[in-house]
Amino acid sequence: xxxxxxxxxxxxxxxxxxxxxxxxxxxxxxxxxxxxxxxxxxxxxxxxxxxxxxxxxxxxxxxxxxxxxxxxxxxxxxxxxxxxxxxxxxxxxxxxxxxxxxxxxxxxxxxxxxxxxxxxxxxxxxxxxxxxxxxxxxxxxxxxxxxxxxxxxxxxxxxxxxxxxxxxxxxxxxxxxxxxxxxxxxxxxxxxxxxxxxxxxxxxxxxxxxxxxxxxxxxxxxxxxxxxxxxxxxxxxxxxxxxxxxxxxxxxxxxxxxxxxxxxxxxxxxxxxxxxxxxxxxxxxxxxxxxxxxxxxxxxxxxxxxxxxxxxxxxxxxxxxxxxxxxxxxxxxxxxxxxxxxxxxxxxxxxxxxxxxxxxxxxxxxxxxxxxxxxxxxxxxxxxxxxxxxxxxxxxxxxxxxxxxxxxxxxxxxxxxxxxxxxxxxxxxxxxxxxxxxxxxxxxxxxxxxxxxxxxxxxxxxxxxxxxxxxxxxxxxxxxxxxxxxxxxxxxxxxxxxxxxxxxxxxxxxxxxxxxxxxxxxxxxxxxxxxxxxxxxxxxxxxxxxxxxxxxxxxxxxxxxxxxxxxxxxxxxxxxxxxxxxxxxxxxxxxxxxxxxxxxxxx
Length: 603
Ligand code: ADP
Ligand code: ADP
Ligand code: MG
Ligand code: MG
Fold this sequence. Notes:
Layout (H helix, E strand, L loop, with lengths): L1 E7 L12 H5 L1 H4 L5 E2 L7 E2 L9 H5 L5 E7 L6 E4 L6 E3 L9 E6 L5 H8 L16 H7 L6 H8 L5 E4 L6 H4 L4 H8 L5 H7 L15 H14 L4 E5 L7 H16 L3 E5 L3 H7 L2 E8 L3 E4 L3 E2 H10 L1 E2 L4 E2 L21 E5 L2 E4 L4 E4 L2 E4 L3 E5 L6 H8 L10 E2 L4 E4 L11 H8 L7 H8 L17 H13 L5 E5 L7 H18 L2 E5 L3 H7 L2 E8 L3 E4 L3 E2 H12 L3 E3 L6 E3 L5 H9 L7 H5 L5
Parallel strand pairs: 6-12, 7-10, 7-11, 8-9, 9-10, 18-26, 20-24, 20-25, 22-23, 23-24
Antiparallel strand pairs: 1-4, 2-3, 5-6, 11-12, 11-13, 14-15, 16-19, 16-21, 17-18, 25-26, 25-27, 28-29
Helix pairs in contact: 5-6, 8-10, 10-11, 16-18, 18-19
The chain binds adenosine-5'-diphosphate (ADP) (2 copies) and magnesium ion (2 copies).
């Protein structure tokens, strides 16, 4: 048995601009019943009772605003919340465990933040009765016999203290315009301010006012504030955005420390290496972004992340993606480069008033993707800009007769028009190139964005548009600055693979800066490693083999990697574990072969 749900995406439905195709062509309407209507002449309303699931409205809607989905009947009784008629619904609720870190992972728009708000007691779940008044009593009654009942009883009684690091840290300066120090002092119920400031490297931030902070500083201030509260449950909604690898590691140490002191912790995260490192358990929310999300059972981190990659949940026998993400076992250092040098530069220097960069000379061959890693404010963006011809080096020259397509780190959407118009203006017929369509446009679901205005896109949506606009170019070098930012795990894999495949197929080259080590690992053939004193001086190596580069970088970070036996994905070794110590002794920070790992204890 199935039950049908109809979803109309509010920001896509534009009844004033279309010909009301859904209403005119619905066979139930044609038969004289009112299946699809337009109350208040605004957004189409679809009756889930009358809908026969023919799918015609989905096809005829010019704005891709409608989804009709069949869900299993059993799921009906698991509905936790529905925002309104024909809108998003969440099935099941994540679990939290005392003294443990649970990770929550899933696509953008699948209900992660919604679930967190419910767990925090900020949103009273309505069990699908969006017209009635939701009460905790009703919800607790519903939870009878389930694991999370006690949690919500204590929430309802105001006994459970919850601290939530919200996703939208950029809203923080609106609420607090004074110095960081004053904010943290006010939050410091645990009397741990000095320790937390030290761990998160916030000393130099203390005397700055919140509106003057960089994205990374703001994120860490938000994480610090949330962790200083004295609570029973700590919820961190996307704590690694804007942070570099070192800072992500600092955040994960802090989060682990909170769990080790006996508290419950839940983390929403898109960086798999981070998730793997910080969590004990993982829960996946799967479904259809914008339409519905189902919270999976609790899996041990390794199993959960492998299931995420597989697209299959063995315990519940659910396939949520038609293909698995696999990792080629291409030996490190083995590349498919051509002889042809696509870009070449001498030693490069760049001096700003307060910052100095020195990069060793290098060249990039056709078919090569050069990954760039390093902490924030070491000059990675400056280097890429010099390569792209956007900035002039103070010393040295870039010999690029080659054309460069450049995707900046900070995206702005000044284009006054829709995504469709943007592509038409900037790309013309290149947009319909089958290689671009197959590798990026279709898997990233860009068609859904075409009717939207550029100025109204979310960070992740804007990122996808910018990546497509760059990769569509007919050029010699693709230069991409932090393409994974704001993307969910699935889209990160799509992008990493697409860059790799398209660059190799075209015999061109790419330079990709990123902080998600999983993305860096998939996308790169060679690596540039940046080191130095953030904000003061930076140094870049020449292009190293991937093994050399990873080794060099991981040594600085203090992490070791191995390959997972089942999926071949690189995994962070638990610090201090036997494998970690052995690899550090041998100086092989980057993963050893899969065979070696089979003798490693499972965790
Ligand atoms: P995630 O955190 O996984 O990206 P969210 O929980 O923020 O997802 O959102 C899930 C879905 O619910 C999205 O389609 C979003 O547009 C919708 N949604 C979120 N908040 C509201 C709200 N207050 N009213 C209506 N729809 C909402
Ligand atoms: P990364 O990309 O590694 O985070 P950037 O290249 O963006 O680093 O910046 C390196 C340093 O140079 C930072 O301290 C930054 O403030 C400084 N910087 C970058 N661009 C300029 C500029 N146009 N004028 C002055 N300083 C700059
Ligand atoms: Mg969210
Ligand atoms: Mg940068």
